[in-house]
Amino acid sequence: MSSLLAAAPVLTTAEPTGIDAAISDATTPVADWITSIVFFSVDVGGASLPLIVVWLIVAAVIFTVYMGFLTVRGFKHAIDLVRGKYSNPNDAGEVSHFQALATAVSGTVGLGNIAGVAVAISLGGPGATFWMIMAGFFGMSTKLVECTLGVKYRNERADGSVSGGPMYYLEKGVGKVTGSHAFGKVLAVAFAIFTIGGSLGGGNMFQSNQATAQIVAVTGGESSIFADYNWIIGVIFAVAVGAVIIGGIKSIAKVTEKLVPAMAAIYLVSVLVVILFNLDRVLPAFGDILTGAFNPTAVAGGFVGVLIVGFQRAAFSNEAGVGSASIAHSAVRTKEPATEGYVSLLEPFIDTIVVCTATALVIVISGAYQDEAASELGGVALTSAAFETVIPWFPILLAIAIVMFAFSTMISWSYYGMKAVGYLFNDSTKAEFVFKIVFVIFTVIGAALSLGPVIDFSDSMIFLMSVPNVIGLYILARTVKRELKQYQVKLATGQIKEYDKAGQVVN
Amino acid sequence: MTHDIVVGVDTSEASRRAVTWACDLASVPRPDGWTRTPEPAPADGSGETSPEGDPVSEQRQESDPAARVLLCHVIPWSPFSFTTNEENERRGSRREAELKAAQEQVLEPLEKLAVDRGTSVSTVARHGDTADVLAAMARGSGAGLVVVGRTGDSSKLRARILGSYTSELAQHCPVPVVVIP
């Protein structure tokens, strides 16, 4: 999803007027205040380093080392799990590993992969790509840890439905390990509250804001008939989202779930087309990325500056450590929580290492970032301009893709928010209903606001989720290691059965 | 391989004909000395049979070498489809409900049909791709034949676009496939 583009222009709309302005004025001061706390930064060699980014990256590196680079060693096993090699045919009809992964990925792939990368490169040069890839690699370990825990401590209700995620492992897991149930509960409640904020912010307002801006841009920019009526587009989004989450209209969600993978595929094919048209520039592009990573020219803060930019965008894009994916993954039916850990490590790989790198390559080989005017565009516009050099009609396709990605992210995050509300209010359907109403109202607000406050608020809430979550992950790291260890032993001794296509045990 | 027969069934008329045909075949004496001794229908007469076959029925084959019929209903499902979080959350309970509905609405009426004809019958409902599951069932149970009705539940248009599962089954199945019109 989220991309969270703190302090960087993405798509700026005209200064709001009328109703848009009224909504904007009322909410901006609150957003500013929250942002100043969450994004407290220190100055490192002339570059501003938000401590929250350090928090996520340090955790990711520690988990990678502590789990013994399992993300590398276990990569093939993760793919085998997704392919269904270890799925018992008698369990057919349950949520498969592939489905859990696809659901979680559709919540993270989106604007971050399109706009976030462009922001990183326009601020940090091609070298930022290298540090994004590194951060994505380390983030795989954080996902592995949080998704294993999500399954291990999930709640299974009498009717067979399941609820899992950081709320549950923070309360039950941390409570057990530290011996203080109250401490676990405090972390869990804090996480749930921030999740509601993240759901309304990055998962909703930011999405509807960017989708609206994109619609305005392709319908004629400031001369667009929607230019002064962003909230009308917001209302249309709100009706569509409401139809799915309140009205329970499955067909809309179904269509989205089918279109998003198609959009992602079209996007990657477009990347390949651009690369094929510029084959001779691919190697130099990689060269630029590598030399830029260690010897950036004209980047504020030099080496440290480019590193920070890359890390920040990656963390914003793949959500490792935020805890959201853990909610999505816990619905899978597996006897071994470790399997879901393995599968989830593919998420930052797909999101950051594959899709973000693809976008970065296009921007670097097209040279669009070197164009003064284009780099001023930043965000979506820069990506769009880069593709346009080879595929002239790409901006329209990109606009459709952004609207689809935004919509599916809103649906995913409405679910995360709803589960957080469910946790706080004991699965009360009344509370969940109120939340859904609030959610669609925020969809309209997001469309009407100017971008700055929306991004800041969105970033803040999503990053706040990582505070209680990562504290819990440190405390539960030993539990995860034991869980993984016993699974690996079972795997080595053949207790985990492998099945061939005909459903016969092969080992 | 045995003379047992796997019958792929749904709610169609062709499925009824397939079951009837399979039951008749099961009662035919075989050249290798297998004869069918008619026996009263077992009291319980239902329940899932493990595809591997259980020791009790292996023994019975010597005294009562009747070919058995396995009625199999496949609920269309793919592990590689795209789902939403809400669907995933309730998938477990929905799966149970789907299996129950398959048992009650599809398998039980056809099972009764077979029992009435004095056939030794068992039933199974499973999620997956129809052709794949039927082929796997034949392989797993050691059955010597798969019988399916021709039309099935899917419409002509659907069959035109997606191809019919019967032709797919014929291509993948390890044993002969009989299609009943």
Report on the structure:
The complex is a heterodimer of chains A (507) and B (181). Chain A has 507 residues and is mostly helical. Chain A is 74% helix and 2% strand. Chain A has 21 helices and four strands. Chain A has helices at residues 18-38, 51-66, 70-73, 75-83, 97-108, 111-124, 127-152, 166-178, 181-218, 230-245, 250-277, 279-294, 302-318, 324-329, 337-344, 346-366, 372-377, 379-388, 394-424, 429-448, 451-492, and strands at 41-44, 47-50, 155-156, 162-163. A two-stranded antiparallel sheet of chain A has the order 1-2. A two-stranded antiparallel sheet of chain A has the order 3-4. In chain A, helix 7 (127-152) crosses helix 8 (166-178). The longest helix of chain A is centred in the last third of the chain and has 42 residues, at 451-492. The model of chain A is unreliable at 1-14 (pLDDT under 50). Chain B is α/β, with parallel strands linked by helices and 181 residues long. In chain B, 45% of the residues lie in helices and 17% in strands. Chain B has a five-stranded parallel sheet, with helices on both faces. In chain B, helix 3 (85-116) links the parallel strand 2 (68-76) and strand 3 (120-128). The longest helix of chain B has 32 residues, at 85-116. The radius of gyration of chain B is 17 Å and the shape is globular. The two termini of chain B are 26 Å apart. Classes of the chains: A mainly alpha (507), B alpha/beta (181). The interface between A and B is medium-sized, with 39 and 29 residues.
Strand content of chain A: under 5%
Residues in β-strands, percent of chain B: 15-25%
Separation of the first and last Cα atoms of chain A: 39 Å
Neighbour order of strands in the largest sheet of chain B: 3-2-1-4-5
Q: What share of residues of chain A is helical? A: over 70%
Mean pLDDT of chain B comes to 79
Mean pLDDT of chain A: 85
The quaternary state of the protein chains shown equals heterodimer
Q: Which stretches of chain B are poorly predicted, pLDDT < 50 over at least 5 residues?
A: 34-64
How big is the Rg of chain B? 17 Å
List SSEs of chain B in N-to-C order: EHHEHEHEHHE
| Count of beta strands of chain A | 4
Q: Numbering strands along the chain, what is their spatial order in the largest sheet of chain A?
A: 1-2
> What percent of residues of chain B adopt helix (DSSP H or I)?
40-55%
Most extensive interface: pair and counts?
Answer: A-B, 39 and 29 residues
